Structure formats: structure tokens, C-alpha cells
Amino acid sequence: MTFWQKLFSHKNKINTVVICVLACLALSGCANPFKGGKDSISVVLTTGFAEDEVFRIEDISCSLAEVELYLVNTQNSYQSTLGGSIWDADPGLTESLKTSCLARLAQIKTMVLLAQHNGIMLDDSEKKAAQNAAKEYYESLSEADIKAMDNVTCDTIQTLYEEQALAGKLYEYTIRDINPEVSDDEARTLTVQQILLKTYETDDSGNRTEMSTDSKAKVYSKMKEIQAQLDEGASFESMVETYNEAEEGTVSFGKGEVDVNLETVAFNLSTDQISDIIETEDGYMLIKCVTTFDKEETELNKVRIAEERRSQAFAEEYDEFAKGLTREINSQLWDSITLCDDPEVTTKDFFDIYNKYFED
Fold this sequence. Notes:
By secondary structure, the protein is α+β, with helices and mostly antiparallel strands.
């Protein structure tokens, strides 16, 4: 997976994959980079904008067409997976989506400035790839799509693709000499079978409510009964099938990936050993160690940890550069932007087409 796929893939967000680069950047997630805060960049609100100019960072600007392109593609990507009614479930989702797109574009523009600062440019083949990608995407658009994206042009699409490619090239340049050593112990991944009895309830909207003390006590008593059956010789596998309330009966994890109480117990079990009852944020658990060292998963975890460290190194350079920049936002234009409600607007392939032309 390319840097840009990891950094900005809408599919990753939908599946809640942890994107270590975004997590490390000071202006990550849905944080609005044009509002105050300890991580915000100096902001100057001004009236000296072009009619279609949404924001400006130093001497690089972002147009309404660019914002609408990101917004429409991201909106349609979510809707294709979760359905068009998702925006009705939580009114705050609309603003979160807008702010997420704003943050993405602000990060891109900042990274372009940093690339220029470091003398990094696209070569002719990369520019040609951006041109071809833009042509393919533009030709896929309907008249309704183009209109919804403020009459976006092929040239604007090509510029966005070039900026994305330059941001990815900057990242690879920055981490080129960073090869962190990760030990087996640090990356060790184990596999357990689990029985979870939840100590919370969820309503139809997915909102979580903790059980009362009395209800938790009843859950604990039930877990004690399960433990007694295991002590009497019942198979752990059958108890998992009968009682487990977690989505999976067998899971693999490394250090820092699960509840701290679960981690502490799990990493001190030997193969086939069954734990005592563990209290976690989700409920009471019993686990059985399947393997104390999953070699394949450990090797994958080494790669993930190494990439996190490279991303952190990049984030440090990014933050140091970005904190001195001035950002200006056209508040009136930004506030007027809304989600598209035209069913004829279906485009959602902008990011996928980029990945097609700029894969590793």
C-alpha cells in the first residue's frame, strides 16, 4: 500500500484502520486546522480572497472546486458503504466530514510547501502519470458531477493529483534513511481464545451505557459459573461457542493493542494455560493461550512498528515546518459549503484512480 493510500484512503477510515501517519500529524483527523488550539498554525482572517478561494497557506491556495471534489468523493464513498441515511443519524457527521476534507487538503498544501522548501519535485514520468490519471477521472464524470464540484476542470484535477504525488514523494524522501530495529520481544504477538461477558449495553443508535453495579455483579457471577465448568473439565472451545459475546472467539494481538489488564495477563500465560477472570473496559473475560509467539503475526507487527516510527520522524519535521506558517480562511465561503443532495451525482473514484497510477 502506498503512502497516499495509507494517509488518505476513505476505505481505511470506514474500516477504522489505524493510520499511523495521520495520528502523528499535528493537524490530523477531523481537527480543523484553521481554529485555535495548541497545535493550530497562525491564522489570519481576511477579506482579500478570490471569489472561489476557500483558504490560503502562505502563497498556495485552495479553490472551491478542490474542496467540493474532496467532499463529494468522500461523501459518496461513505454512502456507498453505509447508505445515504448515515447523515440523518448524527447531525454532527456532516460538519465532521467537511472538517476532515479541509484538514486533508490543508495537509497536502503544507506538504507541497515543505517539498518545495526541500527542493523536491516531480519528474516527467510522475507528471505524465498525474496527467493520465486526471484525464481518466475527468472523462468518468457526468455533467451533474462536474456541476456539483463547482465546474471542476481537468487541469484542476491534474493539479490535485500532482500535489498528492509530491506529498507522497516528500514522505519517502524524509524517511529514506530511517530503518529502525524492532526486536522480537517488542513486536511479539500472541494468540488467545476468549470468552467475554459484556458489562455494558448499547441502544439502537449504538450508544454505549455501562451496567449498574448490581448488573455487573450478576455478570461476574455468571463468569464464575463458566470458570467452574472449566475447572470441572469442560472444553474451553465449547464455552467460547456457548457464552462468548465478543465478535471473535480467537484473536491475536501485540503489546499496546488491547486493554492493559488483558495484556498484562495474556503476556504472562504459557501455551494452553487458562487465565483467571479478567476485568476489562468491555466486561469480564477468560482467555486461553493458544500460542505465546505467533511468528507470522510478529513479523507483520515489526513492519507496522517500524512504519510508525518512520511516520513519527516525518511528523516531527512536518510539525516544525508547519508551525511557522500563516493560514487564511474565507469563512463566509467555507460556511456556505454543504453536502451534495443530488442523486445524479455519483462520482467516488478520485482516490482510487490516483492509487491506480501511483502504486508502489
